[in-house]
Amino acid sequence: MSVTLEIKYYNTFLIKSSEVTHQVVGTGDGSDTTFTIAESSGNTIYAVPNSEADFQVYFDNELQAASGYTYKNKTRVITFTSAPANGKSILVVVKNWHIEESRIRGAFNGKTVDFGVRAAITDNEYAPETREASLIYSGIYNGRTRTNEINQFNPSIPNTKSIDSSFGSIQKLFAEDNNLNVFQENKVHNILIDKDIIFTAEGDPQVTSSDQVLGQVVAYTGNYGISKNPESFAYHAGRKYFTDKNNGVVLRLSRDGITEISNFGMRDYFKTNLKLADSIIGIWDNNRKKYVLSLQEDLVTNTFTGDGSDTTISLAFTVVDKDFATVNLPDPTNISQIEIFQTSRGSTALVANTDHTYNTSTGVVTMTSAPPIGDVVTIHLRDFTSGFQTVTFDEDINGWSSFYGYKPAFGGSIDADFYTYGVNDLYKHYDLDANRGSFYGNSTIASTVDLIFNRPPSILKYFKTINYEGNTGWSVESIETDSDNGSPIPAYVSTSAAVENTWQDLMIAGFKKKDNKYYSYIVNETLPKTNEILFGGDISGVKGFFNKVQLSVSSTSQKELFAVSSEYELLTN
User: Fold this and answer.
1) Which residue of 16, 303, 471, 505 could cross-link 126, Cys pair, CB 3.0 to 4.6 Å?
2) Which range, 14-23, 92-101, 452-461, has the best average confidence (pLDDT)?
3) What is the separation, in whole angstroms, between the first and last Cα of the chain?
4) What's the CATH fold of domain 1-129?
5) How far apart are CA 47 and CA 203, in angstroms?
6) What angle do CA 246, 248, 251 make, to 5 degrees?
7) CATH number of 299-382
8) Can you spell out the DSSP letters for 474-503?
């Protein structure tokens, strides 16, 4: 509360006022002195003040003295002592009254008070107070007695706990093993529940019981937090996964403390891409035992400022992004989700879907009610087909294993099944009856595997073949070394026994089947180089210290790849 009051009775009430609605009641013309406060406009119902004390008047966002006007509640008419100047926008902000019951024990949504002397105190200086780095706990729910006290916040006991606000606001709470993990923007703490830590003379910590619900606050080592991305959090088997966008790292909190798992082969990648993401979605895949992390960009249009009358907003399909580069928005028919935020008098809130419509043909957003003068409307466009990178961390290999071709809005695991939500539907992954390579309603998408052959890394090699074990249908999209390029290799095509291993068969490009494996020679397509003894395209195979190969398959049925190898010679001379 903004004021301190001595409460003499358990059932004392604090009557407090706050802003609830605001509306434009007219524009001055230099002569009119009377204006009417409307009860409704379209589908919007406004609060009607009972007295002059229940509202404030603004001329072009400048507060007017209450002595300058009178108000009649029956007719809802404001009469000004002097006519508002021509062009002055007249805005009325209506107050709403809140009642707080100060009893230690109050009834949730109770309609009556059955005992005690009733006292009422009016607090005209009422204003909300935000404590971004503090916790408060309520009473408990007793399942045995069915006593519900979760609506009770007892002021007679120390039921609050404050954490160092220099580490930013609290973004995430997670309870585990009678401990409470607190994730701030730049720090992670552990709060002992019903316990405290005492130290022996030797400095050894000992956990002891305590009558405090929120016990000692213990900080984890390292200046890491969850930034402002609590959506990146995922949990499994005592391990907590999250990102720190401010530091450009992905983290795992376990019994051994905080570990930077982004260092396992992806440090530079996350240093660059985490800071570019607008939202970071973290999901635990219980089917494959992987942490799925999706870095996503939300495209934002230019903002719109309300004038009290316009209800339609035409979207610009070319905007400037956060890096001041011009980007083209997707076709409006492909925009799967629109989020509209309205900022009014410093407070920003999401506009409900029922309060606006979107025409996919014209790209026009129509608001149910015209935004008042000065309100800022910001439109976020989310396209589930672009602007994302989804990657997975595998605990079995303790590293990052794959990039995925879908952009989830959120997801989770139920038993051994993994689900994600995207566009307008819920999707079940790893369904054996579903078509392969189809993500979020899109047609079949090719699956690719990138491989690098480089051992021994410091010796020049001559790569002659590509061989793989698995199903038919795999092809090689690209072959690249540090000096040469190879031609793509088409998938295996079955031939008749009559032409098997004949010159006709050899003329059929692509993989050949032998002993349930698939083989192909590498054809060099590099242009001739100066001082080359064997000219680029005239030789078979590619030269280099390493060979980067990309295999691809596009199929609605299951395709497996067990192993890929390359036959090569070492060029030591």
Assistant:
1) 16
2) 452-461
3) 83
4) Immunoglobulin-like (2.60.40)
5) 63
6) 100
7) 2.60.40
8) -EEEEEEESS-EE--BPPP----GGGTTSH
Q: How far apart are CA 394 and CA 2, in angstroms?
A: 50
Domain extent listing, the chain: 1-129, 132-223, 229-290+391-438, 299-382, 448-570
Element containing residue 53 per DSSP (H, E)? none
Number of H-type helices and E-type strands within the chain: 2, 50
In angstroms, what is the C-alpha Rg of the chain? 33
Among residues 33, 22, 83, 77, which one has the least CA distance to residue 55?
22
Asked, as a colleague might, if the bond just before 456 is cis with ω within 30 of 0, I would say yes
319/299 Cα distance (integer angstroms) = 8
Reported as a single tens digit per residue, the pLDDT across 294-338 is 998 766 566 778 878 888 877 655 544 444 445 555 555 555 567
Tell me how far apart the alpha carbons of residues 195 and 216 are, in angstroms, rounded to a whole number: 7
The token duo for 178 is 């009678």
Query: What size, in residues, is the chain?
Result: 573
Return the closest-CA partner of residue 101 out of 89, 90, 111, 91: 111
User: Which residues have C-beta within 8 Å of that of residue 134, sequence separation ≥ 6?
Assistant: 160, 161, 162, 163, 170
Query: Distances from the Cα of 395 to the Cαs of 231, 273, 399, in angstroms?
Result: 20, 22, 7
Question: Taking the alpha carbons of 475, 480, 481, 484 in that order, is the dihedral positive or negative?
Answer: positive
Tell me the helix, strand and coil percentages in the chain, rounded to 5. Answer: 5, 45, 45
